[in-house]
Each structure stands twice: as structure tokens, then as C-alpha cells.
Amino acid sequence: MKAKRRYSAAFQGEPGAFSHSAALKLLGETVEPIPCASFKGVFEALREDRATHAVIPIENTLHGSVLENYDNLMEFGFPIRGETSVRISHYLIAMPGTRASEIRRAFSHPVALNQCRRFFAEHPRIEPTPFYDTAGSVKMLAEEHPAGAAAVASEAAAAIYGGQILRKNLEDNRKNYTRFFLLTKQKKPPQSATGAWKTSVAFGASNQPGALFKAMACFALRDLNLTKIESRPLPGKPWEYLFYVDFAGSTDDKPVQRALQDLAETTPLFRILGSYRPTP
Amino acid sequence: MKAKRRYSAAFQGEPGAFSHSAALKLLGETVEPIPCASFKGVFEALREDRATHAVIPIENTLHGSVLENYDNLMEFGFPIRGETSVRISHYLIAMPGTRASEIRRAFSHPVALNQCRRFFAEHPRIEPTPFYDTAGSVKMLAEEHPAGAAAVASEAAAAIYGGQILRKNLEDNRKNYTRFFLLTKQKKPPQSATGAWKTSVAFGASNQPGALFKAMACFALRDLNLTKIESRPLPGKPWEYLFYVDFAGSTDDKPVQRALQDLAETTPLFRILGSYRPTP
Question: What is the ipTM of this complex?
Fold first, then answer.
């Protein structure tokens, strides 16, 4: 009997990375993880059919948009078919048998260590120790068993590598969320998608006063509600800008179609990035 | 004879960090560096007069806006008095006497190492090794002299710690720039500021269709040219948004004053972050 066809998700980082958690939310617990070294590698895995889906971070509440992935969306052209948010919560993880009082070093990515400054200030005997990846630091503990060592990573990373959680919620700021997009060549949206439809588009605007105002008019005319707007200078084209806009509605809706026709007519560059329903 | 009063600049990172390079551009070569461990620490140094100025990164062409620093701008309320951009270029740095052929490890912040993937792919004998800071990795080489080791950091870091540059421009993407703001309690803008005036403001908008369109109308009515727009959800207030807008002009200009009056009248939250002339 042929095994049931499984979804696979390419993401950046080791199994147990926050992108992996997003993939589990979007595609269910049976999704096969396809870890990649870089964001570009994630897009290449989807292009070469080494994964049925790709999961990419697009913005974080503390660090802002991941412009590199907007560039990749424009370059590779895969449609956005899903969206979810993951709370970034850091756990102190050690191998079973290690006591909390023995811990002298905690390995993790410096960005994660930096988000746990208060914990390290209150525990001066534990030295924050940079490592290339959050989940990868738990993997390293499991493989090398260094003495007096712990890792700072996700709950999922503890489960995957058999780590023991010594302490939860090490992060200073609890309002730390990352938003992820789901990309796939498949037409079918994920079953987990139950939120109201959203659409993401990119368009160019010249450095003329009112250029963005005119573009906004295409949406305002139809009472379409914008949920995100972001501008970036076009590389190599000083004084020209690319805008990324998310708004409520789907490209199947007539008013959305008319707004996008207006936008395509009046802006020098226009691209629909996708319509999708968020996974709560 | 009393020594001439010097400027001092608080910034995040070790001396030789890219923020330090921005401080040198903005305030001249004689500026005293006040290194801080965190962005919040930079704002606190300015509040407590441990520095005459603060220099903070606000956006990067690959990684987007540093939302954490927008939050700090709102919280601390210091006006923006200057702006500059620094090209992020990575150098392979070793202590004098170390030959290129001996290098087996290159220390740096993982974000910097990740921006030099091509170099490491072409030099598989050199292992990228995570460290807490780019400039800090050169400082560590100078202090500890580990065998066969190099660092990936700025040209300035090589000069400060007596490092030798073995190779320039390790970064994969040459379009890697970071934009910095200069903050100070002083009224006088820096001498280096020669560009055309710009103003940054923040305002709230409710989740009503057309709310942003109406806000944009305040600028469009006066032909004021927007150079950046960014939205972020208000933490703890679902469906409400905060917008950051940069536009050409100064709060000394009458049309700017009128646009900002309109904006203050029609938006639920409004703040002028500052008017400034860029340092080229």
C-alpha cells in the first residue's frame, strides 16, 4: 500500500527553529521538516521541488520586516498561500541529568541571548555563549554533552533533541512575535487557514509628491482596509521606492480586482504577492 | 588651560562597531566613544548625560527597520538632530604576524558571518565561528591571540585594535547599508549636516478603511514628498496601528506646520520625532 503523501516544509535553521514551529502550525504535526542554511536556500528548495511548501519569516514585532525575504518573494515569484504568527519564547534547556546549579554557560544565537538580558543579569554565574543557531545549540548539547552547559531555544527544540526545560520565558519582552508566510506551488490552501482573507501586493512609486497618496486612493475608493504598509528604497535607483501593502480581501473579490487594476494602471511596477487566510 | 569641550557619542557595541563609524561621520574624528551593551543603554546614557549625543541604527537595506529603536524614540522622547548612512562592509582581520594560510577560524557575530556565505563556501578550511559582536571579535584576538584565528569586522575595528586586513569586502551583497539617527539634547545640529531638511513623525490610525489615506491627504495637500512610510501594530491594541513617516521639509516651514496641525487634529496619536539635515 502506498504511504499517504506527506507535506514537507523548507525553512531556515535546524529542526526546532521557530520557523519549524510555524510550519507545524500551518501544515500539521506530520509535516516533514526540510532544514535549509539560508533564506535563499528555502526558496531554492521549493523551486527544485525538494519541499512541497516553504515557510519564511516576514516580520517581527521587535525587529521589523525581513526585507531580504520580500526581495526573495519578488525574485522567485511563488505565491503566498498562508500566514501565521508565532510567539518567540525562549527556554533554558539542558540534557537530562544536568542540574540547574551546575550550569555555567548557555549557548544560543546572539540575537536570542540579547533578548534575555534580564535573566543573565539575575544569573551572573551563567555566561551567555554565542552559537550559530538557537535550535542548533540544543542539538550540539545532545551530540557533544559539554560539561555545565545549557542552551537557550524553543520548547520545540527541547522536545526534538531530548532536552530538559529548566526554565521558561527567559525573554525580557513578552510582545515578541514573528509573522510567517507559507509559499507553495499547490493551489490548495492549508486546512489550518480559517481567518479572513488578506492580500499582499508590491508596487513602485516615483519620488513625486503625492505618488503614494494616489496609490492609496485605489484602496480608499473601495473602502479596502490596509493592515500593513512598508516602503523601501529601490536598490540602485535612488529616489524610487517600492511599497509593500497588505489589505483585507481576496483577489477573487470584485472590488479588490478593480483596485488592483487601478494600481497596475498608475504605478510603474506592480505585483500581486498572493491572497491567503491566516492560521490563528 | 581648559581643554576644548569634546562631543561624546553613546552607541551599541564595542569601539569599531558600525554605529561607531556613523558617530565619526556625524560628529568628526575627535568624538569620544561611549560603548553601550544595549539600545536601551544608549538612550539611558543620553538621559543621564553620560554622553552628549546618541547614535542609533534605524533601518538596514537588507533587514528593514529597527522597530526596537522606534519604540525607544517614543519612550525617551529625544529629538532626532542628524542622520547618516554607513555601508556595511566586512573585512577579514587577523593580528600582525598571522598568515592568511594559517587561518582556520573566523570569529564574528552570526549575522555578519551569514552575510559572507560565499567567502566561506570558497574557503572551506576557514570555519565561521560565532561571537557576540563584530568589533568585539577583533578586540578578543588582540587580547587573547588564539592560534589560527581571524575576525570578520569593519575596517575601523582593524585600525582600533591593531589588526591587519587580510581581505576586503567579504559580504555577498554590496547593497548593504544601515541608516543611523543622531540624538542629542543640544539645539545645534552637527556641522557635518549638509543635506536637504527632512522631518520624521509618528502617528496612530484606527483600523478604519481610508484612515491612512486621510492622513496621507495632509501631506499631499501641500505637495510634501514622503521618503519613508512604515506601519506597525500597536502592542496590546489589536487592530490599531502606528505609522512612521519621513518627508522632505523642516518644522520651520509653514506648509509643514500646517500639514502637522491637520495630522494632529485628525489622528488619535501624534508625535514629531525631529527635523534634521542628513550627513552625506
Answer: 0.72
